[in-house]
């Protein structure tokens, strides 16, 4: 059986002319629908090292729809 996480985040337009948005993209430290809990500091190091991070449509590496310019855990 294939499981797929689906989460709709709230977004806020920051600059509609440039297509920039602000969004929460992951829930950390909370049991998700698959029974997983991601440690709230799990990505702290990799986020800083990998900016800008590509934004993919449906996790498809061939379909980049944007990029994360800044990110931080909240």
What this model shows, in words?
- The strands form two sheets. The chain has a two-stranded antiparallel sheet with strand order 1-2. Strands 3-4 form a two-stranded antiparallel sheet.
- The protein has one helix at 44-50, and strands at 11-15, 20-23, 53-56, 64-68.
- The longest helix has 7 residues, at 44-50.
- The model is unreliable at 1-6 (pLDDT under 50).
- The protein has 74 residues and is mainly β.
- It contains one helix and four strands, in the order ββαββ.
Strand order of the largest sheet: 1-2
* Separation of the first and last Cα atoms: 33 Å
**Strands, count:** 4
Give me the Rg, rounded: 14 Å
Number of discrete helical segments: 1
Brief characterization of the structure:
This protein has about 70 residues and is mainly β.
